[in-house]
Every structure is written in structure tokens, then in C-alpha cells.
Design a protein that fits this description.
heterodimer, A: mainly beta, four-stranded antiparallel β-sheet, about 0% helix, B: about 110 residues, mainly beta
């Protein structure tokens, strides 16, 4: 399975943008980049995913490097509710979702 | 949201007893999963199912068995619970497109 590298933890101030990085230098051409987050005492939830182009949805934006060896999840205005563990996952069709340790995001009021 | 219900949500059991956790989904998703989550290890896949009666092992399957007799139900059984199986267990289903995995709220199991 292709692996990802994320910082263990990050801090942000409320109402400021947050850029969560993910390195995946061994990504293959068929790997999609998925982001999930896990709020305290809950199961993980879907945030966004993409293959090559940048993606936007109501929760976040996903910026994918041109060589696809890294990506960044962007939360445009962090709220206290965004405090969670964020997981960056590579997955090709037919593979299972493999969760790494993720990045623990703290949002300061 | 894939309408996933896990039961029981919390359980304390004694070492050596069998335990069954149930996962019920309402979306008719073909793929279902059982993960466990422990401090320092993150989420690890125990078993998964790709259809009725079709199951396969994940990363940490020793000491666990599963059954899927109906599309909507996926059971995880600890045949003889040990203290190392104290954990939070999450059930999940996968969307037909394969792009999204939905998790239940978790089952907290303590083996004493």
C-alpha cells in the first residue's frame, strides 16, 4: 500500500484558514487521495477526495501538487468544531481504506 | 450517512467469555468492515465482507471471526475475549462508487 506522511499535530486559531499537508511520494497513477476526519468519540467521516485536479466542497478544498507527490487539505475558516484528527489516505480501486495516525488539529478560540 | 447502527455501544466482559458485536446498515451497501482503534495504533482493519457469506481477513484478524448472513448485518465475534481486545470497535460500509466509507458510532469494549 502506498504510504502517506502527515504532521502529528497542528494548531490553528478560530476563523483562520488551516492548511493540512500530506506527503505521498510513492503514489501510483491509480491512487485516489482521500481525506477523512475523526471528531472526539466518533467514527471517522468523509471530508473530500481527488485524483489529479484540485477539488472543492462545502467542507474543504483539496489542493494536489502537479506531480501528485503531496496534497493539502484546506479548511477556509476553522471553527472549534473542526478540532479533530485528519487522515490522508491513498486508495486505488479495489483496495481497502488504510488509516495512518493522522494529524491532530487543535483550534484555539 | 449510511444508517449504520452498532450494538452494544458499551460492554464490559470477563476474560475468556465470547462477545458478539453487531453492525446493522440500512443502505444496502455491499462492502462492510470492522476496525479497531487503540491509542498509538490508529484504526486497524480486522475483517471485511464483500457480500453475503463473503468475508476476508484484515490486518489484525487473530482472535476474531465474522459472519454476514444478510446484506444489512455484519457480526464480529471475539471467541474468547482477552484483555488485549479491550478497544473501540468501528463498523463501516463503503459506497457503491468505492469513494466513500461510512462509519458507525463505535462500540467500546472492556475486557477485565
Amino acid at each position: 500500500d502506498a504510504k502517506t506522511t502527515q504532521p502529528n499535530s497542528m494548531e490553528s486559531n478560530e476563523e483562520e484558514p488551516v492548511h493540512l499537508p500530506c506527503n505521498h511520494s510513492t503514489i501510483s497513477g491509480t491512487d485516489y487521495i482521500h481525506w477523512y476526519r475523526q471528531l472526539p468519540s466518533q467514527g471517522p467521516e468523509y471530508v473530500i477526495h481527488g485524483l489529479t485536479s484540485n477539488v472543492n466542497n462545502r467542507m474543504a478544498s483539496l489542493a494536489i501538487a502537479e506531480d501528485r507527490k503531496s496534497s493539502t487539505l484546506i479548511l477556509h475558516r476553522a471553527t472549534l468544531r473542526d478540532a479533530a484528527v485528519y487522515y490522508c489516505i491513498l486508495r486505488a480501486d479495489g483496495q481497502n481504506f488504510v488509516f495512518g495516525p493522522g494529524t491532530r488539529l487543535s483550534v484555539l478560540p | 450517512d449510511a444508517g449504520i447502527t452498532q450494538s452494544p455501544r458499551h460492554k464490559v466482559t470477563e476474560t475468556g467469555t465470547p462477545v458478539t458485536l453487531r453492525c446493522h446498515q440500512t443502505e444496502n451497501h455491499r462492502y462492510m468492515y470492522w476496525y479497531r482503534q487503540d491509542p498509538g495504533h490508529g484504526l486497524r482493519l480486522i475483517h471485511y465482507s464483500y457480500g453475503v457469506k463473503d468475508t476476508d481477513k484484515g490486518e489484525v484478524s487473530d482472535g476474531y471471526s465474522v459472519s454476514r448472513s444478510k446484506t444489512e448485518d455484519f457480526l464480529l465475534t471475539l471467541e474468547s475475549a482477552t484483555s488485549s481486545q479491550t478497544s473501540v470497535y468501528f463498523c463501516a460500509t463503503r459506497s457503491p462508487s468505492g469513494n466513500t466509507i461510512y462509519f458507525g458510532e463505535g462500540s467500546w469494549l472492556t475486557v477485565v
